[in-house]
């Protein structure tokens, strides 16, 4: 890599003397987004998009040193021109563009190419080297338009409500939960949030994101208030005593992994909705080709299969990098 090197602490740009999404404490870290595998505790100074600021403070501590920058605004570090560009992954997610003496590298973090009407839509950035995830880098992964997914989810909720079941939907606290909130049919019933999701919502609202400000599930709310309601909870709440207050209920999991036959059954959920904040197979190919990169570095996911496709079919040089990024966790651990 001409502008980057992989070090024990993470991806490092020596010319600018900064790291992108490092996994060990460093002096200067540019953060692509606030998910835990990309935004970690212990950095002396953070830089991120402004929509990531309050969530990072919630997760990493109010006293972190953090500077924010808007999409497309350039700044210089030791002669390296740096800017953030929309990744479309979750609110505040960004690709990091580095330019030095005509050489351009882009680190994508995580991304999706479908406009979810919540996150700033993905914008391809032309470069010589592109660092890409490939969480769902297999041809079996092909997402349906989110309108169809939410039509099915709202119908599932309405049927449950008619049968006097409460509906509990499991989704990541940051990104996916807010995407669901933005697409629910609120005429069906009340909507509540687990505390972890409510706290994330408050941080995003404080940052200026426009999302429904739904109530938090508390002990003071009578059980009768949940009748016919939809409750959004992180995957970590699955099967815990916290769920008892919603009985009788039906459960659903929202994940790209629900695309795989049998995944829902293994998780003992009543329904599974194929909803991912990562690009599918076609989305990955589209994004990489749009970058016009001569060389692509694959950081996490199906690196072997996807890299072989890029080289043999698209004639793009691909190199797999061993990183600590996780993408969409197949064990459904919240990030």
From TrEMBL:
Top-level division of the source organism's lineage: Bacteria
Matching NCBIfam families: Xnuc_lig_assoc (TIGR04122)
Organism: Arthrospiribacter ruber
Keywords: Exonuclease, Hydrolase, Ligase, Nuclease
EC number from the UniProt entry: 3.1.-.-
Name of the protein in its database record: Ligase-associated DNA damage response exonuclease
Molecular function per GO: exonuclease activity; ligase activity; RNA endonuclease activity
InterPro entries recorded: MBL, Xnuc_lig_assoc
Class of enzymatic activity (EC top level): hydrolase
Upper lineage: Bacteria, Pseudomonadati, Bacteroidota, Cytophagia, Cytophagales
